[in-house]
Amino acid sequence: MSNQIKGFITGIILGGVIGAAVGILFAPQSGLKTRKDINRKTKRLIAKSQKEYEAALKKGGKAYESAVRQLKHLESSAKEKIGEMEEKVDELTEIGKDAFQDTKSHLIKAVNATANAFK
After folding, report:
1. Looking at the whole model, is its pTM more than 0.85?
2. Whole-angstrom Cα distance, residue 114 to residue 16?
3. pLDDT tens digits, residue range 51-89?
4. Rounded to an integer, what distance in angstroms lies between the CA atom of residue 59 and that of residue 70?
5. How far apart are the C-alpha atoms of 94 and 101, rounded to whole Å?
6. From CA 98, how far away is CA 86, in angstroms rounded?
7. pLDDT at residue 30 above 90?
8. What is the distance between the alpha carbons of residues 39 and 47, in angstroms, rounded to a whole number?
9. For the chain, which end, N or C, has fewer CB atoms within 10 Å of the first or last residue's CB respectively?
10. In angstroms, rounded to a whole number, what is the distance separating the alpha carbons of residues 25 and 93?
11. Whole-angstrom distance, CA of residue 80 vs CA of residue 88
12. What was the pLDDT predicted at 101?
């Protein structure tokens, strides 16, 4: 490490130590009062954090319930559409069977007529 960097780091550390000492010496209140203030502010922060946590939890619960309702609605709609599609497929299958039978009948008649024509 160069001397400039060592000097800079030493200056930062020394400045921090001197600043802390001066802060303690010139603090406007006693250490006991400062600790009480810190304790009080910590308790307020914890209480506020707890309220925020509970609000977020409640909001998350509402969002979850809404998502479940929407998914159930989508499931219901999807089942309804599937039922409609099954009916349509059954209907088209019957139409296809009828068309096949008609075509088969016409083809058999045509083949028989052709066979009879060559007898």
Report:
1. no
2. 112
3. 999 999 999 999 999 999 999 999 999 999 999 999 999
4. 17
5. 10
6. 18
7. no
8. 12
9. C
10. 95
11. 12
12. 92
